[in-house]
Write a structure and sequence with these properties.
heterodimer, A: 4-stranded mixed sheet, 4 helices, about 25% strand, globular, B: alpha+beta, ribosomal protein (chain B), Ribosomal_uL10 (chain B), mitochondrion (chain B), Ribosomal_uL10_bac_type (chain B), Ribosomal_uL10-like_sf (chain B)
Amino acid sequence: MAASRGAVVLKTVKKIIVQFCPFESNVRSTREFLIMVGSEKARATNMNCEVITEVKHDRSQPMIDITFLDGERLVMKGSRITTQEMLSALQTRCSAKHPQAKAGDKK
Amino acid sequence: MAATLCGRLFPKSGWLPLSQSVRHGSKAVTRHRKPLHFLKQKLMAVTEYIPPTPAAPPAALAPRVRKTEEESALAVLLRKDLENLFKECKMIAVVQNNAINAEDLMVLKHKLKRHNISVKFFPNQVTRSFLSNSVYSNMLPLFVGQTVIFVSKEPKVKEMLQALKHSPQMVLLGACIENTLLSYQGILSYSRLPSMTTIQGEIVGGLTMMTSRTVSMLRHHPAHLSALLQQYVKQQGSGDSTNAVTDKETSIIQEAAA
């Protein structure tokens, strides 16, 4: 179930808010995304990044709100997308933000 | 042989011609496939062999029956365990853990043990199969992903919430407290409920309030009268200093009025 590049790199992310209602049936991918993002490896990439979870019960659709360091926000409505799609969307945006920094780190 | 056409020689009827024309180059046995004569071709086409269509094998017709795998003995054991838990414990809370540390988990377990709350791990498949057969089928959607169950015999919600405050990775999803399914907000409001004695006191107070109100309304007029008389007596007493009417008489008036 790992993403294509292994761990999720959260260097450019400031805050991730995940809200869902666990009694709905379409929250599986959102919950799995939360697990992937809240894992040790992902958190180790950026200790300042906060992962906030909100559990609701109002039949609302699951939503993921990511705030980047430069103020950009990525809002994903998780009722109909898979975990892989969410992860890849996040990763493309992260790498787009800091391609030079990442290339320097890897080398 | 050279092809010689001598059709004009001896044209009288009945006579065989002296020489017959023979075309050379067409032998019966050739190395390549010789095209059939047209008549033979027609005959072969008509008398072609049509094989009978074979009936479908019985396996193809019968629907594929999925072999129902027998549950492993471990799953049966775990299921029994779950059944006992649900019967005994009043409070069952479902929590999602996003990769909690081992030491954090130990600390959390220690905190919860103090209040007799035990932390249990069960495989999702077993839990789901058990829940779908039991009364608690509405808890099914909760058990997706990595989940942990907190069980306890006493519904100690406040302590559990306090212990969970310190670990942000454990996300409370829902709980079944005293056979009622509660969401996160429900759990919070449950923790804010006052204890049974206070609620009982409130109810009793509310019920008796009505009766006491009627009593006070009935006694209102004579009480007012007696109070006025007492005041009058006091004024009289302080003015004349002759105690004509004493408190005894005011009490007699009260009894007469009631």
